[in-house]
Amino acid sequence: MTTRAGFIALIGEPNAGKSTLLNRMVGAKVSIVTHKVQTTRARIRGVAMEGESQLVFVDTPGLFQPRRRLDRAMVAAAWGGAADADLVVLLIEANRGVTEGVERILEGLANIGEGRKVALAINKIDRVEAPVLLGLSKDINDRYPFAETFMISAERGHGVDVLRKWLAGEVPEGPWLYPEDQIADLPMRMIAAEMTREKLTLRLHQELPYQMTVETENWEERKDGSARIDQLIYVIRDGHKGIVLGSKGETIKSVSKAAREELEEFLGRKVHLFLQVKVRPNWLEEAERYTEMGLEFKDGNV
User: Fold this and answer.
1) Does the global pTM surpass 0.70?
2) Mean pLDDT within 245-259
3) Residue 201: what pLDDT?
4) I need a surface site. Which of 8, 14, 108, 185 has the fewest CB within 10 A?
5) Rounded distance, CA 209 to CA 14, Å?
6) Alpha helices, DSSP H, located in 146-187
7) What pLDDT digit, counting tens, does each position of 197-235 carry?
């Protein structure tokens, strides 16, 4: 039996559908998926099996024009994920076409080393007519020598199996990198924090301060098989704390309930989740917070 295994970086603009594709490939929810841009902060690895091949997906933060330190760290993580991978999949939205952001990514692809195969996945194909789709495919393939082009809908699953089979045949021969039944290499503490942050993002809509993060402070395994999880939500202003708590604590209660239910489903056991909101005006400048998110704390431009 010849086994294969390799790392596959999913890159693209914010909201291109990378997290949705990762979750579809893996068959479980391992990456935060919301309608908000820039929700994936750390490189999340999801593991999928296809025949005798093990595909280790690196879901990178969306590539955009960085302005703040956190932005720069996220963009550096994205390009780092692409540079370290065996294969790269560029995801673009069919209904948006070749934007300025996509053009910047195409320029960046030229700098991550020759010889690495890059596939193009045009996502959300159900949103445009066939002639538009074919024109877009030709346009972008004229700009970069993609190894293959795939037409997919990550949300509905169309074309995803074809992409996964191609990737399975392209990853290098070698032993599997993870146990067969493992779906992610993120610590459960970080996955739990991401789930809570997703629920906050969905609940707060336009009010959400992006300068917010969630950390799992304590994880206690109980004798009855349940887990007690204590999490801290960091915000930078008192006003933001009020938004997260909500009137009479209703918002935080709703978020806690939704996050707890998802964690229980994910873990397959009872969870006691306790959330606390803390104001840390300078958390965006604290190296420890970046380490917790799996990002590199750095100065200067990317």
Assistant:
1) no
2) 92
3) 83
4) 185
5) 17
6) 160-170
7) 888 888 886 555 456 788 888 888 888 988 899 999 988
What was the pLDDT predicted at 131? 92
The pLDDT tens digits of the residues spanning 51-88 come to: 899 888 876 655 445 566 655 565 555 556 556 778 88
The predicted model gives 100-123 an average pLDDT of: 81
Task: Place 291 in a pLDDT band, splitting at 50, 70 and 90.
Answer: low
The tokens of 62 are what?
């969306």
- Dihedrals phi, psi of 213, to nearest 5 degrees: -140, 160
Q: Are 271 and 215 in contact (CB under 8 A)?
A: no
Could you tell me the fold of the domain covering 188-292? GMP Synthetase; Chain A, domain 3 (3.30.300)
What is the CATH T-level fold of the domain 4-170, as seen in this structure?
Rossmann fold (3.40.50)
CA distance 255 to 302: 35
Extents of the domains making up the chain: 4-170, 188-292
pLDDT of residue 292: 60
**Whole-number Å distance between alpha carbons of 200 and 213:** 10
Q: What's the sign of the alpha-carbon dihedral 98, 100, 104, 105?
A: negative
Distance CA 112, CA 83 (A): 5
- Asked whether residue 36 carries a pLDDT value surpassing 80, the answer given is no
Bridge partners of residue 47, in order along the sequence: 56
Residues 5, 173: Cα–Cα separation, whole Å: 6
Specify the DSSP class assigned to residue 23.
Answer: H
Give the C-alpha separation, 88 to 211, whole Å. Answer: 30
E strands, the chain, are 4-12, 44-50, 53-59, 87-93, 117-123, 149-151, 213-221, 227-235, 271-279
How far, CA to CA in Å, does 7 sit from each of 57, 170, 210, 248, 297?
Answer: 6, 11, 30, 46, 24
Three-state secondary structure call for residue 125: helix
